[in-house]
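(Fold this chain)
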Amino acid sequence: GRGFAFRRKQKIERQYRKLLKKGRKVHSQQDNQFTDTYPEHLKHLYLAEEEMLKKRRRAPSDSVLSEEKLNKAVDGYGRYGYDCLVIVRIWSTCTFSHRSVVTEGKFKKKTSNQKAKEEYEKIKAEHARKREEAEKRKQQREAAQRLYKQKKMEAYKILSKKTKRGQPNLNLQMEFLLQKIQQNT
């Protein structure tokens, strides 16, 4: 987020830009005053970040860092100077574009509203899927019932036929049982 650390970083960047403007106009020793405000144990990190920001602001033709410029940036910073030199060299050899840094920021954590919307969409899709499955099962059940009723009706018609005198027709019943046995085997 944009908490106190971000504001502190912005403030330091503004001070640094201001210092660079003054340095261009009058070549003075104010650079030491600016860099001395860093905590000693974090100085190498701040210096590496400064170099990275300088590199971003530079024109593409001026992107290659010379050995002398690197040595000037590191002068007077004790054992952290070598770390800074290594970090700056790594940044100078890597070819990260500004866009890649921006796109990484786009993949931030989702807000609660976005999470709720996604959850709602998932639930909605799940309900639609369940509704479709239920509809399919209902249609299959109805088709099976129609088929069952049709067979029952045919069996009833055959078995309920009577002779002229009103007696059950045993010949038709025997034929029906024979067909049933033949279908099962």
Remarks:
- The longest helix spans residues 112-159.
- The chain has a mean pLDDT of 77.
